[in-house]
Write a structure and sequence with these properties.
mainly alpha, 220 residues, 8 helices, 0% strand
């Protein structure tokens, strides 16, 4: 039993530490050297694109609304998937103790005590709720950005529009990343080893997608 608890208390925090550390490193590079990160390049291009939109130009304003539609649909999809997984977790929580009896006490499945099972469901549920909230905020910001881009007036400056637009995209990215981390926490139900393996696989995929010039060599 001590070996089982040892795996739960070491491997799961280690996987979370690696995931959080990677995103801290990504945020540092985004602020200091955005040209090497896909999100940084996208942010710079988005600012240039917003500055190129002239008030009163109906064609460009309509194109802007259509361009934001994909990001809005992505945020809606993330929020929908998140709430469905939360409802599924609530349904599975009633059968948690039965599942723990089937798994037994082995190092692979980790500890199956009542407190550990509650911690597993609680950690996954909290991360999913955070993802849902971020995606919901992203939807609200993007809807406001659509309105502001097509609005003109003395009190509506481009700086405010840019801030709302950037917040929408930022919250959308955060919601998607937290959803990915939540999926790795869901694997904790099957033991600490799947959490570590899935976290390493997730970081490998994200590194190839985030850093410009790395994806071609990693996924060639």
């Amino acid at each position: 039993m001590g070996e089982v608890n040892y795996l739960d208390t070491i491997l799961v925090p280690l996987s979370l530490f690696l995931t959080v550390g990677y995103h801290v490193f990504l945020w540092h590079n985004l602020k200091n050297n955005p040209s090497v990160i896909l999100q940084g390049i996208t942010t710079l291009k988005r600012r240039e694109w917003l500055q190129g939109i002239k008030l009163g130009d109906d064609k460009k304003e309509m194109l802007a609304v259509q361009s934001l539609r994909n990001a809005l649909m992505e945020a809606i999809l993330t929020a929908t998937i998140t709430i469905l997984v939360i409802l599924s977790l609530a349904a599975l929580a009633n059968n948690a103790y039965k599942a723990s009896d089937l798994m037994g006490v082995t190092p692979f499945f980790g500890s199956q005590s009542g407190r550990i099972i509650a911690l597993k469901y609680g950690a996954a549920s909290i991360s999913l709720i955070i993802s849902f909230m971020c995606s919901s905020l992203a939807i609200g910001y993007l809807v406001d950005a659509n309105f502001l881009i097509n609005s003109s007036g003395e009190f509506l400056g481009r700086e405010h529009t840019r801030t709302v637009l950037e917040r929408g995209f930022f919250m959308g990215v955060v919601g998607g990343r937290v959803l990915c981390v939540s999926l790795t926490l869901l694997l904790w139900l099957f033991g600490p080893m799947p959490v570590v393996i899935s976290s390493l696989a997730l970081l490998w995929v994200l590194y190839g997608l985030d850093y410009v010039g790395k994806a071609h060599y990693m996924f060639k």
